[in-house]
Amino acid sequence: MTSGRFRFDDFIFDPGQRLLTRGEERLDVSGRYLDALALLLRERGRLVSKTRFMDEVWRGVPVTDEALTQCIRSLRRELGDDAARPRFIETVPKHGYRFIAAAEWAGPQGDVTTAALRFDGAAVLRTCGLAGLGGALAGIAGGIFYGFAASPSSPATGMGATSMLLVLVALSVLLGLAAGLGVGAGIAAAGLIRGDRWQSSTAGGMFGGLAVGGAAKLLGLDAFALLFGRSPAAMTGAGEGALLGAALGFAAWIAATRRMRFGASAATGALAGALAGLLVPLLGGHLLGGSLDLLAQTFPDARFRLDAIGSLVGERGFGRSSEALTATFEGGLFGLCVAGALTLARNRRS
Fold it and tell me: Is residue 111 situated within a structural domain?
């Protein structure tokens, strides 16, 4: 390996200089253990078998499995890792170990090499794709919900009601896909640049949601203004996307650091998304339900109405309680699907 350093979390490891540092602190790690850490980092994301440790770290010197166990235990102690909830070194029972944190290989001047970019770039693309798929699945469920909620109070019947359902599902899927891609890209890119920190994950999700929400609003406003001469200016946009993305970024960090399984991770995302969704109308914003109601108000002849949802909470029409309820539902559904997708991406990486 050429001269350079590994960077992960707050640590820098220089194999050539035999140095492991955290900030300005030099950590005292023995030579064999540094060799083991170098092997794990070179194979980051992949299983390193016990046989490889014996061949490449101890180089044929006969030792027991306990020596390897003690080596990993010491490395975890220096890294502040926990075997039960690993952030860096994961045990694969009866097989070996795997380095699971985001890490990059930098050259002597700190430039990330092409190989590291290819590795992490593939992870970013995988995360984006799965998050987008999760958003699209949430869109299917949301579109069906609003399609059936609108039908009873709409004059549309027969094929008209079916067409309305299909249009709403298509619209919701498109929005969910774009939002999932944006949030997933932001979280993955932040992890690539700044490592596994809650600040970077939250900020990444926020900026991803901000970009997609802002772009979607601009395109939507322009499209309605061009086609109909007017548009609902208060429809969902950058602010709503940023809030929801930040919540999911934080939930993704919790799930990753605690190594949550699929169900727990999805539930954490659902809770974070639901809370963010509830905050949106309380702060004066709108998600899909509120935006659809604004469209209906902007175009009085529209056949789409959400009065049926209002009647469930004792309101005439689609009021504040109705919007709070649907926004919580939308945020929770989106969080559930995207957080689950991000867990699948993380598991495939590891």
Answer: no
